[in-house]
Amino acid sequence: EKSLEKDDFNFDVQKKDSPEEVSFRARKCDRILSEMYIFPIKSCAAMRVSRWKINRRTGRLAFDREFALVDATGTAMRLNAYPMMSQIRSSIDLDQRIITVKAPNMSNLVLSLDCDDSSENVQKYHEKDSIRVCGNSCGGRVWGSYDATKWFSSFLGVRCWLARHYQKQMTDVTSSAGTPLHVSSSVAAPVPKGKSSEEKAFANEAPMLLLSQDSIIALNSVLLSQGQRRVNPCHFRPNLVVGGMESLATASCVKGSDEVQTRTNPEDNWSSVTFEEKSLELSAVGQCARCSMVDIDPSSGMKGKTLRALADYRRKKGEIMFGVFYSGKSRNNQEELCSDDEVWIEEGDHLTCTQKAVS
């Protein structure tokens, strides 16, 4: 008989993971980007995009909140004050470099993204030299011809102008562009540390707003129990809507229950989301405090009672939270802007969501 040798006793035994490794994996979950939106004109209708460009460093989708409507006082107009803004729909054509704006009973308005058509008449007609936008200081300029001013003013029934976010590096705009305007503001919270207005344009607090489908499912269960109509993600004006491999939001919402909040709004506990295949990582900045704007149906402009339903189970320290703000995060601690700083993401992309560390 063959004698047994030492090598005959070497078995392939898998190494047991350490508790730290098991805990690290448990803090991650796989999700899918189910819907993606940009809002070319602040407080107006969304433009759904199946594939779009995002800046890795800032976390901002191209042309999101690039424009705003400004009233005669120099203040950016908001949807809760002017519900008909929900009927103004704009679309960006990246190939032709144009923005097309549509509204009921109005002819289409087409404006160049590269060359401003505003004239001296428009600049003189616009009496204010400052724009107040959501509490933060940023730059802006009147954009479009007198016809554009007349188009928006006619539809909304109020004297207003289209303003475009202005930043010093906007070198592709021709010399015919309108005079730069200083933008100050007085409504929202301060810009998150390290984020300038140039990185978020006319967005309120951060370049990106994310919402999970679980959160919408949970809210709709509350609305139905109150005899109200269902809502969709566009009520909350998110950029990214994240779906999961399975629905987590099946429990009833109990007022003040932290456990239910974790199950129904999982994004509350994510510190970051990563598109591994795109080398894109977004970091959570903070939760989004909601106002009566969420009551407005984006398809009709009619008001509902969404905020009251959210108040039943999403109130935190006097504010009603729903959705999470994100900003860009440099990979491998790279702080400098790279030539490939922009990347395309698309609906259906897989994301890895990392849970916040438990202290």
Short summary of the structure?
By secondary structure, this protein is α+β, with helices and mostly antiparallel strands.
Q: What is the element string, with H for helices and E for strands?
A: HEEEEEEEHEEHEEHEHEHEEHEEEE
| Radius of gyration, whole Å | 24 Å
What would you call the structural class? Answer: alpha+beta
Number of strands: 19
**Low-pLDDT regions:** 8-13, 120-129, 169-197, 247-260, 333-337
Helix content: 10-25%
**Overall 3D geometry?**
globular
Distance between the termini: 61 Å
Per-chain topology:
Layout: H1 19-26, E1 28-38, E2 47-48, E3 51-55, E4 67-71, E5 89-93, E6 98-102, E7 109-112, H2 120-125, E8 130-132, E9 138-142, H3 146-156, E10 160-166, E11 180-184, H4 197-200, E12 208-212, H5 213-225, E13 240-244, H6 258-264, E14 270-275, E15 280-289, H7 306-311, E16 315-316, E17 319-329, E18 342-346, E19 350-355
Parallel strand pairs: 8-11, 12-13
Antiparallel strand pairs: 1-2, 1-13, 1-19, 3-18, 4-10, 5-6, 6-7, 9-10, 9-11, 12-17, 14-15, 14-19, 15-17, 16-17
How would you describe what is shown here?
The structure is a single chain. The chain is α+β, with helices and mostly antiparallel strands and 359 residues long. The protein has helices at 19-26, 120-125, 146-156, 197-200, 213-225, 258-264, 306-311, and strands at 28-38, 47-48, 51-55, 67-71, 89-93, 98-102, 109-112, 130-132, 138-142, 160-166, 180-184, 208-212, 240-244, 270-275, 280-289, 315-316, 319-329, 342-346, 350-355. 40% of the residues are buried.
